[in-house]
Amino acid sequence: MQREEEIKEKLQHRGLKITPQRVAVLHAIYTLNNHPTAQHIIDFVHKKYSNVATGTIYKTLDTLVEKGVIVKVRTTDEAARYDGRIDNHHHLYTEGSNHIEDYVNENLDTMLKAFFKDNRIPGYEISSIKVHINGKYEEERETG
Ligand SMILES: [Zn+2]
Fold it and tell me: How far is the CA of 116 from the centre of ligand 1 (A)?
């Protein structure tokens, strides 16, 4: 399995025991890459390990989110999406499709931090700022 060592390191780093289910779920998220839904992850895991219970996969996802190995991405859809990328980044949502793309821009981060430094929200401590950008590309574009 590709990246298996890396996956095991991530689990250990967060104080999680290495189990085949956790490795399989993380492998699915990193392979699917573009913010998969739980259903995408379940289908992917089941292709290779049909004996893993769906409930176990949900539980594994919860544990991985709780321990900060992955992030749950907020969407307007019912279905949660999961992100294997945990560094600070923003998301571009494509209108009329389920496509979510990472958006990384250090200038934006610096600007946002500076803004909230000057415009403190009384009694509120900001831990992270993620911008949810809606729109669509002007021209059809390969989105992989
Ligand atoms: Zn992302």
Answer: 23
